[in-house]
Amino acid sequence: MLLAGALTLLGIVTMSGWLAESTRQYSWSVGRTTNLRVAAGTLLSQLQDAEVGQRGYLLTEDRQYLKPYEAASVAVDRTIATLRRLVEGNPEEIGIVERLTSLATDKREELAQTIELMEAGRRDEALAIVRTGRGLRLMDEARRSLGDLITPADAQLDTQLAAMNSQARQSLWVANLGGMFILLVVGAAVWIALQYTRDLVQAQQAIQALNDSLEQRVSDRTMDLQRANDEIQRFAYIVSHDLRAPLVNVMGFTSEFEAGLASVSAHLDRQPADGDDAIASEARRAVKEDLPEAIAFIRASTTKMDRLINAILALSRQGSRTLNPEPVSMQVLLENVAASVRHQASELGCVIDIAGPLPQIVSDRLALEQVFGNLVDNAIKYLDPARTGRISIRARDDGSRLTFEVEDNGRGIAPQDHERIFELFRRSGVQDRPGEGIGLANVRALVRRLQGEVGVDSVPGQGSIFRISLPKILTLSPENTAHDA
Amino acid sequence: MTHDPQAVCIVMIEDDEGHARLIEKNIRRAGVTNEIVPFTDGTSALAYLLGPDGSGQASMGRALLILLDLNLPDMTGVDILAKVKATPYTKRFPVVVLTTTDDRQEIQRCYDLGANVYITKPVNYESFATAIRQLGLFFSVIQVPGAEA
């Protein structure tokens, strides 16, 4: 579009240039023709002057009349030279000028002859030459030749003028059309620009609307999730409390039962065993062996049940605790964690190596202590007795996040258990250590609350690396700050 | 005007009959012989404490000590606590909250409403029994004001 406009403009400029060139040529031609006309007129009048001088002298014999003749005779050469210059390059005109030159020469010779005869006192002879009419003929011929020279030049001028006029008209047309076209182009360009702008504004509005609805959708979704999360929290809390109440009864009445059994046992002890019949000895065995064994199983189960409920309760409390982000020196925090297990570690001959200095982080101190405390505890708990234990802790800066690694050379975790170990009540490997399968579930719950991720790389028999990625600065949105359980 | 501690009646509001029985057993083991009136739901307990008209006049002249569980089937113990402490005839009765909840906010709320003692039931039975027996000892020395005449 714009290219077409530019081309049109270029066309108009070229057209104007062409017209200007034509005009220049025309004005040059006009100048030449005018000069030619003037020179031709001058030549004719000079020849006439010479003839007038000759006639005057022949009539009066007064030499005074010879002055114009002499002046004109000299001037004729100059005029002819001018003519020659003007017709340069035009063979036809050169021919005419050559004939004019010879006519002028003949005329001057004729004049000079008569004047010489006159001066010699042969007036009659001079008059006789005049009477032949040759001078008259020469003059007529000269007039005709000059006419021949001027008429075509005039005609050429007329043609050029006509051509130039038509050219000017063409130029005007081209200029007008071009101008109109350019106006059209500019109008179209303006229209397109407006269209584009309108489209852009519409697109922007659409994006804005989309953005708004997206924000709305995100906040809706967040609220749903928050509600679901709250529901789970409440559920866990209620379950743990409601499971506890019957358990108190089971444990309580088991104790009552045990106390009752103890009194029965004391009573039986006072009876001599040798007087027992079959039923009495059966009762004695029940009181002494079977019932205490049953009570022991009930106790073990209720104790375990109690621990599990406490774990759920602890986790649900953890989820509802208000986080308090503050600047925490990870160096100090991890040194404290290592110090708390130093006794245990030195007993096992295990080295804990912190690749300091560890960076600062803004997060919840208590949660961090629990997370790293759990990981280091686990590392010590599951060391491989076949080799000297070594636990290394290091940090890596990932821009806006920090990644911490807790590496051990312990017994390791089978690949199929890498995800399972983070689930509640799930454990991996040989079950030769006390525990409920709560630690890592708690770690993951805590790390997620700190907007982080936890994962593990491990080769069984070689060791494990637990990786925790945390934001450098924990910022809490209003939804996940405080929840009172 | 004070009453003979022996005349004080213990109102036990506890929905779990097992718990109620274990509490009663251990209170008795502490040598407390006062009458124990058990309720397993909030509605009947309130009817006893405040009377059928809910004015509390039914408790006029009584000397009561209230043992209150917070997890009840028909209402929370906190509602009962609030009503007891808001009624002129019952507001001076000592209230002992005995429950499984050890949530900090819940404890604060109970004390704010005027609970005199808050005890979390230990899950371990030996601790539970010890706590109740100590509570029983506490009951034997506590002075309970009679309701306003």
CATH superfamily of chain B: Response regulator
C-alpha end-to-end distance of chain B: 10 Å
Distance between the termini of chain A: 70 Å
- Give the helices and strands of chain A as they follow along the chain: HHHHHHEHHEEHEEHEE
Number of helices of chain B: 5
What's the count of strands of chain B? 5
The coarse overall form of chain B would be globular
Shape of chain A: rod-shaped
Oligomer: heterodimer
Derived from helix and strand composition plus strand pairing, the structural class of chain A reads alpha+beta
Can you name the CATH architecture of the largest domain in chain A? Up-down Bundle
What's the number of structural domains of chain B?
1
Query: By helix and strand content of chain B, what is the structural category?
Result: alpha/beta
Query: How many structural domains of chain A?
Result: 3
Question: Which sheet architecture does the biggest sheet of chain B show?
Answer: 5 strands, parallel
Extended strand count of chain A: 7
Low-confidence stretches of chain B: none
Name the CATH class of the largest domain in chain A. Answer: Mainly Alpha
Report the total helices of chain A: 10
